[in-house]
Design a protein that fits this description.
By secondary structure, the chain is of the alpha/beta class. 32% of the residues lie in helices and 17% in strands. The chain has 6 helices and 8 strands; from the N terminus they run H-H-E-E-H-E-H-E-H-E-E-H-E-E. The protein is globular. The C terminus is likely disordered. It binds S-adenosyl-L-homocysteine.
Length: 198
């Protein structure tokens, strides 16, 4: 079902992901529906279900991958929780996460390319600047392999950058008892409250 969810517009894209069973949870649906991919992807194919270039030789992930990551972490992206998005790139996933954790939650997106962090700031400001003004969402430049201790402990960490294993300092930022799960395409998604993929 992956790759088949191309949409005519943003709502159609999200509805396709839902009808193909990739989006299952209302909170994931609501978050993705609220974050228009064209604010974060500036090619003429923003509503295609495939990766698209965002500069610096980097791509925004395909929408089905974003949906898959959010579904994997859905039980940890509850109101009031804290999340770290390593390799935040365009900022799309971090913004969805910030919507899911609600007003009392906190999300940090970290990327090691400053131009991309600047891009994620301007992308997010298009429709969701309030998330940054209220400190619900912040972006930082840094090496995600070292984690980001200022926002720790986290209820969950998504690593969108390729990594063969979870770098130890990233895991140190989690609440105790860390299981890690490996998603296809080398995304590592960790949570502190139990594995989501077996
Ligand atoms: N999740 C983002 C981008 C995924 S591409 C999106 O969908 O838009 C992977 C991202 O990981 C790139 O932005 C890259 O710059 C970043 N990255 C790679 N290694 C990193 C590291 N060590 N620390 C922080 N970011 C890193």
């Amino acid at each position: 079902m992956a790759w088949r969810s191309h949409g005519k517009n943003h709502r159609d894209l999200v509805d396709q992901l839902k009808s193909h069973g990739i989006i299952k949870s209302p909170s994931v649906y609501n978050a993705m529906a609220a974050v228009d991919r064209s604010d974060f992807c500036h090619t003429h194919e923003a509503y295609k279900d495939n990766p698209q270039p965002i500069g610096s030789n980097v791509t925004i992930s395909a929408p089905h991958m974003h949906a898959h990551a959010l579904e994997t972490l859905v039980s940890h992206l509850k109101p009031g929780t804290r999340a770290l998005d390593v390799g935040s790139g365009s900022g799309y996933l971090s913004t969805c996460m910030a919507i899911m954790v609600g007003e009392a939650g906190r999300v940090v997106g970290i990327d090691h390319i400053k131009d991309l962090v600047d891009l994620s700031l301007s992308n997010t400001a298009r429709s969701h600047g309030n998330l940054m003004k209220t400190n619900r969402l912040k972006y930082v430049v840094g090496d995600g392999r070292k984690g980001y201790s200022d926002g720790a402990p986290y209820d969950c960490i998504h690593v969108g950058a390729a990594a063969p294993t979870l770098p130890q300092p990233v895991g140190m930022g989690l609440l105790p008892d860390i299981p890690t799960t490996m998603l296809p395409s080398q995304n590592i998604t960790c949570s502190s409250r139990g594995p989501d993929i077996h």
